[in-house]
Design a protein that fits this description.
single chain, about 260 residues, mainly alpha, bacterial flagellum, cilium, cell projection, flagellum
Length: about 260
């Protein structure tokens, strides 16, 4: 007779815990992180990827707390893993938000504030220049294997912040709030060459119009500003990838620092 496979309720609960809790953190990060969390990526794809990662990474993790899933403690751990995953994905998303902000700054100076369209990824109107820079940032992110580094950082987070029922430290949320200020600094630094050059061009046209009112310099001001912005943007393109690589490294480091700060 063939042996009968018997599974106890304790074993089934242990298997469920070993899969479910890492799966929740991974799904939360995939739903909010760049590339993975875009609305163009179908939900079944996100769920399937999180499940595959949980199956692959779950056996390498430390033993889980001996708490049933269907209990107050189990629901508390699920909520914690959800918050941790969302916070990690959001900290990486800040880098792309800075790129979009730089595109908004540059578009306003170039007179392209009216050139906007509905962006399904953000759910609102987005300037053309901001959308273009965001698309370039995503392509560079994929070229440097940033999506793989995000997954590696996610796997490392289970060692820096293991799954436990202890409350998360408040210093981690404070760190995330302070990291949000980097959006304005990085966005302004990226757009600063173009903004400064166009400001100089506008000052020169203002002085020229003051010296010669009959010239009507503002009649050709918009084409000159647009042409100057395009030329400066062309000169910035070779330096975009090195700048974004530093920002990607900063975002990945923030993900790990966040998990360390959340550790009780």
């Amino acid at each position: 007779m063939s042996p009968v496979l018997s599974v106890t309720s304790a074993q089934l609960s242990a298997w469920m815990v070993a899969f479910l809790w890492p799966f929740i953190r991974m799904l939360a990060l995939i739903s909010t992180a760049p590339i993975f969390g875009e609305t163009l990526v179908q939900r079944p794809v996100k769920v399937g990827l999180a499940a595959l990662l949980a199956i692959a990474i779950g056996p390498t993790l430390d033993p889980m707390p001996a708490i049933p899933v269907i209990s107050a403690g189990g629901v508390w751990i699920i909520m914690q893993q959800l918050l941790i995953g969302v916070a990690m994905g959001f900290s990486m998303r800040l880098v792309f938000t800075a790129v979009q902000m730089a595109g908004d700054f540059a578009g306003l100076q170039m007179g392209l504030s009216f050139a906007s369209f509905f962006d399904p990824t953000s759910g609102g109107n987005t300037m053309v220049l901001a959308s273009m820079l965001n698309m370039l940032a995503m392509l560079i992110f994929l070229a440097v294997d940033g999506h793989l580094m995000v997954i590696a950082t996610l796997a490392e987070s289970f060692h820096t912040l293991p799954i436990a029922d202890a409350p998360l430290a408040a210093s981690g949320w404070q760190f995330l709030v302070l990291a949000g200020g980097h959006v304005f600094a990085a966005g302004l630094m990226l757009a600063l060459p173009l903004v400064a050059a166009l400001l100089t061009l506008n000052l020169a046209m203002g002085i020229l119009n003051r010296a010669s009112p009959q010239l009507s310099i503002f009649a050709v001001g918009f084409p000159l500003t647009l042409l100057g912005g395009m030329l400066i943007l062309q000169q910035m393109m070779p330096h975009l990838a090195p700048f974004l690589e530093q920002e990607f490294a900063f975002g990945l480091a923030n993900m790990l620092h966040l998990t360390q700060a959340l550790r009780p």
